[in-house]
Design goal:
mainly alpha; about 80% helix; about 0% strand
Amino acid sequence: MLRAFRWWLLLRGMSIRAGYKRTLGLVYIGEFFNGALPTIYSGDLVRVLEFSETVSKATTAGIVLLDRTLGLAGLFIVALAAILFGFRTLSPETTGVLFAITGVGLLMLFAILQGNLLPRFLPLLPITYREAIRTRVQPFLEALSGSPLPRLRMAILLSIFNTMFSAVNHFLVAAAVGIQLAVGLFFIFAPLVNLSLLLPTISGLGLRELGYSVLLAPFQIPSETAVALGIGVFVSRQSASLIGGIIYLIWNIRRWLNTAG
């Protein structure tokens, strides 16, 4: 619901009139396709196509990409804050590595959100690729410039809360499989593990389990228990995404009935 409201804010910032109910349905549908296909971007494609009848695909793609970027900003902000407040519970080596990952990631996203970094890199690229990349970057820049600053701030705040709820979800699943660790640690681990969803896997299956095996090893958590945590998070996420499959089925039945009528 928070992610849907974030996307709704960005759509309104570009003067695209979309009801929150439809936006929420599309977020659920996107989650369903993210889990069914081997990449999270399949859900983004569905969101773009659903607006293609009234809004250009380039504009919608730019807003979806901005929405995705702000989501990543929330991940890095929560992880960095958790590391700064909870570094005493981690070894110095682990703290240094995690701090470097989150710090560099947050700086890169901040530079991208300034809107003037991406165009500066274009002259460095081969001429044959320059125009193609410019065409793909331009919709993102237009979506960024078209969103008022208060809306962007609110969108980042929603991303932070969304990440915090995800961390609590990971903590509850961990408790269910017998992992007794402080909830604050999952505000560090969950955002970093969620980054695995950016890679071409089926809803992060495999990479999420590997990530938790590495992150929990210093706490003497057996690898099979860490894998159970990853699978539990996967199941909870997929259970929620099934709502998107039901919504998609209902929408298509209605479209078929309207066409037949």
